[in-house]
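User: What would this chain look like folded?
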Amino acid sequence: MKIRSFAKVNLGLQIEGLLPDGYHKIKTIFQSIDLFDIIEIELINSGIVIEGDRQDIPWDEDNFIYKAVDKFKKRFGIRKGVRIYVEKRIPPGSGLGGGSSNAGCTLIALRKIFFNDLKVEELVPIASEISADTSYFLHGGTCIGEGKGDIIKEIEDIENLYFFLVIPDIKVSSKEAYNEWDRAGLTFSTKNFNIEELGTYIKLEYLRNDLEEVVLRKYEELGKIKEKMMKEGFKKVLMSGSGSCIYGIVENINDAIKSKENFTPYRVEIVKSIGRKEYWERLFID
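Assistant: Here's the prediction, encoded as structure tokens.
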């Protein structure tokens, strides 16, 4: 079985306080985009074997895919083994959710292989144990994420919105970003997103990412990228999640294509938003 594991961007991120377990209470808007890894899954006699085409990613017990398979097998008493190979297109440590997406989509695939009548909602407890945003990838499309980012509410999809992604060779972990935020002693956000009116550019303009201040301060290169993108005239420029990807909302595709040459040597992708219907229709390749 082959599946697509789609990336996401965060359309803003607010830090609203601390939860009893010490994690940060956030509010964010997750949006699926047309950038994906390809995951191939086959059954073997026993064990869990995870492999991939990038040597800088650990394919061991610490990998989110391994954790997803291990927890799924234990929860449902599966004896058969699983071998997985991953073609990585989503850069790790970029704030595009590659690892969490891999885990969430693997759970969906295992559900189809072993228990096709199992409700997707029954995968949520497993997803929540893997990472804060793994649960989102059991939904796809446009969703609000609250709590640690693991409480997901589906909202009306924002479709055919194009993003200009600049992805430098910098890895920023979520833990690192939130630790920097704590050390900076910044104030928790109190204003809410204008969720109901999100679909218009004018409201997208007012979105912000509370982690930007500390991450861009630590990594000056990211700040320079954002400044350059703003000068290029993108409607809104934000960091996705904890970084390092900086994205701009595209109004004119031809202008965006011309802008690509101004951001060498960085990796640049022009991608579109994906709604839930398209997300699920394209998830399985064969």
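The beta strands are 2-18, 24-44, 48-52, 81-87, 142-147, 151-154, 162-167, 237-239, 246-250, 267-272. If you want, I can go into more detail on any region.
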